[in-house]
Amino acid sequence: MTGEEAEMSGKQIWQAGLYDEKLGYVAEYGKGVVELLSPKPGERILDLGCGTGDLTQEISKSGAEVLGMDLAEPMIHQARNKYPHLNFRVGNAEHFELESPVDAVFSNAALHWMKDGRSAASSVWNALKPGGRFVAEFGGKGNVAAIVQSLGTILEQDYGIDAGSLNPWYFPSLGEYSVLLEELGFRIAYAAHFDRPTKLGAGEDGLIHWLNGFAAGPFLAGFEEAEKGHVLQKVAKLAKTELFRDGEWYADYVRLRIVAVKQQ
Ligand code: BEZ
Fold it and tell me: What Pfam families does the database record attribute to this sequence (predicted)?
């Protein structure tokens, strides 16, 4: 892996090529969140945690002016290559400031990487105009519980590692996240917490691709490269009864969807 292809952010390693080639369902599912955003011509919108920019592009089709922001430089690099007519920048969702406020902040499948949910929501608040909307989907309480449990069991039983301390994700309950937003001054216009089993594609290899893309960095940072593959195979074997059916893997996604309005 070259420096251009990957970057350590915390311990997560973002590989833009793998993300686009093997994890393309992330943006596909996000199209429903763009519908919820309902962008209008002339609106200024921030796509927070834009990855390689597919949904930034989707939002821009409405005629809105969109800025895509992501912490991972390789993702922004790839986004700029794919969509040179759009604006992208590297920025940290937990601590960012915009030059001028926007009509809406959109975020798909990104906020669960921000352990400090309050700081991220507070930055969103500061970025919005009064009356502006925050439209987001990310992992809620119970998200990928079977995957996390299988990782935990293998790491603990076979290697004596406490996986809990390595877990990089923030999966709040609907109540917890709504309170957080209300404390900042948002009005919750819509909120839902629902199961969305997500087909990982690639048949037998689906979960291994997912684990390589999202979990190997944070959970297996201490392992030799050669050993990582063995660990992931063991995790997949353990998770198989629960998550594999009819030749495909289904991740046990549980989503939080929120529309919150910055009170005037
Ligand atoms: C998710 O989209 O729910 C997710 C993706 C990567 C890691 C954890 C959760």
Answer: Methyltransf_11
